[in-house]
Structure formats: structure tokens, C-alpha cells
Amino acid sequence: MVINSYEIGGLMLYYRDPYLKETEVEILERRGNEYRFSDTIFYPGGGGQPADKGYVLCGNRKIGVRHKGNLWHILDEDCPLSRVTLLLDWEWRYYLMRAHSAEHAFFRFLQNMGDARLGKANFGDVSSIVFEGDLDIHDILEAEEQLRELISKGAEIRDFWIPKDEVDMYPQLRIRKERIKEDRIRIVEIVGHDVSACKGIHVRNLSEVGDFAVTSFRAGKKKEVKFVVGEKARKYHLQASKTLREVMWPRNLNMDTLAAYLQNLEKGMRDMEEALREMSAKIPFEKVKCKGDWIYYLYLPAGNYKVLQRRAMEIANHEDIPVLYGIGKNVVCLAYPAEKEFFRKEYLQLLRSEGGKGGGKGNFVSGSAPDAKKFVEKFVE
């Protein structure tokens, strides 16, 4: 049995009329700075959708308010009146409504492509979806394109309630049955596209979302998509297009040649990294006496950090001789035997005097100096 939200007695105003921006209510009970109202337009938050923002108009004063649930509200100041006006931060609420509706539609497209399993969603200026499934960047971009097309066409969004025991009558329903504790379930339907159990606040038509843009995608077992909607999405697409052309045109590239150019660039970087790794493994350290003790040292304009650190630690441990090296503009590192702690003190003292900073645990310290080459030269003088 389907029951519309406006037909259910006791439902709060944010469900009965999610577009209501202002209303007058009675104060039924007080408990310190907590007030129980007769009704509310403030959604308390839940399901990744943050709590509404707004004010209580107490006489001529606007008082910050937050709905904590069950009509109990926390006020920033006392209000002695018996009736007050609630003022909703509509810009914030409406953005969240659009983002939440967009998430429902977007994730349904992902599910249609594969075995996407929703972990959690969080909504805000930039919203995010964490999920698992065998989907890649091409699927994400395809889902974005499909959603933008659906937004441009529009789709009715309606909400209604069903008894818990009727869940199986909706085979396409996205729901986690183990989380349902109430006897009735609120359903949000994007007509012709998606049906989900949800307590959040949504727009009435998907066209109100305006636009949708995925701003980042993190791969891995737990994947994450970040997105924006509305004017933010429109500006993002414009900026992405502008940036792409600024990259292509000075290099005489176009959409057909860009991918091959980037692949060659990545191959060149991998080859360079491999060359640096080989060089870092083979280049010899210089050996000199410093204040009566031997020390190995080396400076490289570029090198592989891990390879050099491993070599330095092996020398310090096996030969009982400290190893100092610098890489690039700023990186300076020292590996030393435990019995030669004074080299660590000399290193940190010189680093501070040069305006650098650093530290470390065990017998290895690293830091950043204004000039790594000069630092190495000064240390071994």
C-alpha cells in the first residue's frame, strides 16, 4: 500500500513540503537551550545529507538553530516567546536537495553498468560517493554523460511510504534491509530510472539539478567519486574544457593526438625513473675524513630516494661509517652508526643554521636545506 508524504499525519514539514522556506510554529517545551517545536522545516541530517541551516525569528532577533531530531532544536540564544518563525537557509538546502537527487540517478547508472555496491555518500559543496565494484574511469565518464542527458530531459521525482513487509514488491528497490528498523519505509523514485529507500530531501524533478560534473575519481577496491551540481558543475565543465585546450594548442595537439602524446610522455618518465634508479644504485660515494672520522658523501641533482637510502643504511651498518648525501635542490640525508650519534647532532645543528628543518627516527635523519649541494659541501669541510 503506497502512502504519499502529504497524506501521513505527524510527518514534519520538511517532508510534507520540502520547498517551504519559512513557517510559524509553537514552542511546546524548553530544556535549557533545547526547544521542542510543534513542527519544523529543518531537516536534522542523515543518510549523508547534512543538517539544514537557518534561524529562529524571536521577535526582532535572528537566532541560529539546529534540529537535533524529534522536533527538539538547539538554539544559540534564549527565546522567551511561545510562537516563533523559522527561516530556512534555502540556498544551502536546495543545493543539497539537488546533489542528493543527482547521486541517486548517477549511482543507478553505475549499477546498470556493473556490480557497483554503495558504501556511503556525503553531500556538501563538493559531494562524494564511496563504493565498490568493477568499474573504471570510462564507466564513470559514461555515467556522467548519461546523467547530464537525463537532467536535460528531466524526470519526475516522487516520494512515498510503504509498509516494511511490502519491500519484496519492488524488485528494483535499492535498500539495505538490515538497517531498516521502522515499520514503514520511505521510497524516493526517479520515475522511469531509479527506486531507492531514502529519508533525505529531494527535488521534484531531476531537471532542477541543472548540471552535473565529476571532479575526481579514486580507483582501488574502495572507489570514490566526487561531484558538484548546478552552476558549480557548469563552471567546472567550462574550466575543464579551457584547461584542455590550453594544454593542447601550444603543443599542436588535438583530441585525436592528445592520448598518444601523454602515453609517450609517461613512457619517457618511466624510462627516466629507471635510469635514475640504476644510477642511484651504481654511482660511488666519495670518502673523506671529517673531524678525524671517515664519512661517505654524495650529491646528485636527481636520484632515487629509496635506493640511495637503502645503500646509505647498508654502508653505515656494515662499515660503521656515516653517509651523507643530497638530492636535488633541497633534500639532505644522513645515515650513521649508533655509536656515532654526534654526527646526527652536527647534521641538525648545521641544518638549523642554514635555515632548514628535518629530523628522523633510528639511525637515519632527513631534512630540507635551502641549498642541498652547499649543505653537503659545508658538512664535509
Short description:
It is built from eight helices and 20 strands.
What's the helix and strand layout?
Elements: E1 3-4, H1 13-16, E2 22-31, E3 34-37, E4 54-58, E5 61-69, E6 72-75, E7 83-88, H2 90-113, E8 117-122, E9 127-132, H3 137-153, E10 157-163, E11 184-190, E12 194-197, E13 212-218, E14 223-229, H4 230-248, H5 258-282, E15 286-290, E16 293-300, H6 305-319, E17 323-327, E18 331-335, H7 341-353, E19 357-359, E20 364-368, H8 372-380
Parallel strand pairs: 16-17
Antiparallel strand pairs: 1-10, 2-3, 2-7, 3-6, 4-5, 4-7, 5-6, 8-9, 9-14, 10-11, 11-12, 13-14, 15-16, 17-18, 18-20, 19-20
Helix content: 25-40%
Number of strands: 20
Tell me what the CATH architecture of the largest domain is. Answer: 2-Layer Sandwich
| Highest CATH level, the class of the largest domain | Alpha Beta
Would you tell me the structural class of the helices and strands?
alpha+beta
Quaternary status of these chains? single chain
Provide the spatial order of strands within the biggest beta sheet.
2-3-6-5-4-7
- Our count of domains comes out at 3
Runs in which pLDDT lies below 50 for 5 or more consecutive residues are none
What name goes with the CATH superfamily of the largest domain?
Threonyl-trna Synthetase, Chain A, domain 2
Overall average residue pLDDT: 93
Helices, by number, come to: 8
Radius of gyration: 31 Å
What does the overall shape look like? Answer: elongated
The proportion of strand residues reads 25-35%
CATH topology of the largest domain: Threonyl-tRNA Synthetase, Chain A, domain 2
Order of helices and strands: EHEEEEEEHEEHEEEEEHHEEHEEHEEH
Separation of the first and last Cα atoms: 87 Å
The largest β sheet comes out as: 6 strands, antiparallel, barrel
